[in-house]
Design goal:
This protein is 49% helix and 11% strand. Helix 13 crosses helix 14 (399-423). The protein is of the alpha/beta class and 514 residues long. It folds into 3 domains: 9-25 and 427-511, Arc Repressor Mutant, subunit A (Orthogonal Bundle), CATH 1.10.10; 49-119 and 179-423, Rossmann fold, CATH 3.40.50; 121-170.
Length: 514
């Protein structure tokens, strides 16, 4: 155990002679978002929106990819090889504080989806009118059938013939549900019921309530949310039988998620669900990023007079959304599966094996194996979205789409590693960071009557952060030792005075002034 430094008042340390303070955590900044890995039709609009809105590029790209996935998912899926097939849907999760303009950015990319929904609403009114007319005709035929049976003109018990009343019931018109894709913060139950009506949805939200639930939701309920989200990503089966809602079964749904969550909400969620290891696993299917904020540098610019990239993007969105999805006799989607050409297949296999190798002990992805294990699948989905959105869906996915998708996926894997490093810090480190922030605020609040402003350890025990004031706990001492080891504070015992005092290094105070 490292001993505390001991100094007397007349031997107060000369700062230049002390070791330089070391950071508690090495600053791991995100690598620049590889926007040039995107197809030009997506890249150009991301850069165009970034130039005006000035939100983080990674956040804007996540919003664009959410829209692309929404447009592609109804009619197209991806075939990775002769045996492996699956949806082309994407889940994206951006960690950002409130005020990063996600809602504003989303509106740029979801406008064509909202136009499609408005058209579907109008078409639905027409379908309802047709259904009512068909139902009247069907009821009239039923009345005629009953009169013929009553008059003896039809023998319902004739040998070898199906009861005509049964035939009539089988011919009853079916009312089609209104098609709607955009969902905000629907509860998981409401989302499942909506998918039973139309098995395609896009959950785009700046609050991420569908996944994380309300603040009062217990861990078990949150786990159910996540389990359903996992099934939706797989395009699997949701099956429920409840007294309140009756039987519900959805097969082969296609669901996109484009969510933003605030860091504090994510931290609380990770703690609620059992810590980092589980927290990372729950996000294995998401393309996760925590971009650096642009707040403080977003100076006003006039809106651009023309937005050609947005027009091109919107046109492609509208074209894909207008394509009619195909359903089988059981109302299950029948998508067109898009495979890889030979070069793309080899590139995907190389990426698959590269990621697999890096999951070994002491390797780069060893701490994010759940995320890494889904990386090849997500790369295939990205490649399919890139190809369909910018090329000819009747052709196989080519090398350019695959290389871009793999490159982008490596960036998202690096983001997951960065998150694991920061969120996986030991509790002692979190305590030390909390104590340092409190000490700095305390020093700044004191009148500086002398060159050295000290904070008594006993004052911290009485007024400091709650979790460091627990009786019979060593957490405060452990946090002080860690700060002392990193030369960020000095713990002093002064002659003629009981107790200890804490001196915050001037260089540390300067860090908080930048």
């Amino acid at each position: 155990m490292v001993k505390f430094a001991e100094f007397f008042a007349h031997d107060f340390p000369d700062e230049p002679q002390l070791p330089r303070p070391r950071p508690l955590v090495e600053d791991e900044r995100a690598q620049p978002y590889p926007v040039d890995a995107l197809p030009s039709v997506i890249r150009d609009v991301v850069e165009e929106v970034a130039g005006y809105v000035k939100a983080p590029t990674a956040l804007i790209a996540a919003s664009a990819l959410s829209a692309v996935s929404t447009a592609v998912q109804s009619c197209f899926s991806v075939q990775r090889d002769a045996a492996l097939t699956g949806p082309a849907t994407l889940y994206l999760l951006t960690v950002a504080e409130s005020g990063e303009r996600k809602s504003t950015v989303d509106r740029f990319f979801t406008a064509p989806i909202r136009e499609w929904e408005a058209e579907q609403k109008r078409s639905h009114r027409e379908r309802v009118a047709q259904y009512n007319a068909d139902l009247e005709d069907w009821e009239r035929r039923g009345e005629d059938l009953q009169r013929n049976i009553a008059g003896g003109f039809i023998d319902v018990h004739a040998a070898g013939n199906l009861d005509p009343r049964v035939t009539h019931q089988l011919e009853k018109p079916r009312q089609s549900a209104r098609r709607r894709m955009l969902r905000g913060d629907d509860t998981p139950e409401a989302l499942a019921m909506a998918l039973a009506d139309y098995p395609v949805a896009s959950v785009i939200s700046a609050e991420a309530g569908t996944i994380f639930g309300s603040h009062g939701m217990n861990a078990e309920a949150v786990m159910r949310n996540l389990a359903q989200a996992n099934v939706m990503w797989d395009g699997g089966v949701i099956q429920r039988d409840r007294v309140s809602t009756g039987e519900l079964q959805v097969e082969g749904m296609r669901v996109t998620m484009g969510l933003q969550v605030q860091p504090a909400v994510l931290d609380a969620f990770v703690q609620k669900t059992g810590g980092l290891a589980k927290g990372i696993g729950y996000f294995a299917r998401f393309l996760f990023c925590h971009p650096e904020s642009t707040q403080g540098g977003r100076y006003y610019d006039e809106p651009p007079a023309d937005r050609p990239a947005q027009r091109t993007f919107d046109h492609q969105m509208t074209t894909l959304l207008a394509a009619e999805p195909v359903f089988d006799e059981h109302d299950r989607l029948v998508p067109h599966f898009v495979g890889f050409d030979a070069a793309a297949q080899q590139a995907w296999i190389r990426f698959h094996d590269e990621v697999e190798e890096k999951q070994g002990p002491e390797q780069e992805y060893a701490n994010i194996r759940d995320v890494a294990s889904k990386a090849a699948d997500n790369a295939a989905r990205l490649a399919c979205c890139f190809h369909v959105f910018s090329g000819d869906p009747s052709m196989s996915i080519g090398l350019v789409s695959m290389v871009g998708a793999c490159r982008l996926m490596r960036w998202y894997l690096d983001e997951a590693v960065r998150f694991a490093h920061s969120a996986g810090a030991a509790p002692e480190l979190a305590d030390a960071q909390l104590l340092e922030e409190w000490l700095v605020a305390r020093v700044r609040a004191q009148p500086k009557q002398s060159a050295a402003v000290l904070v008594a350890v006993n004052e911290v025990r009485k007024k400091g952060p709650n979790r460091l004031r627990q009786a019979h706990s060593r957490r405060l001492d452990d946090a002080l030792e860690l700060l002392s080891d990193h030369h960020r504070v000095l713990v002093l015992r002064r002659a003629g005075r009981k107790g200890r005092d804490i001196y915050v290094r001037a260089e540390v105070l300067a860090e908080y002034s930048r």
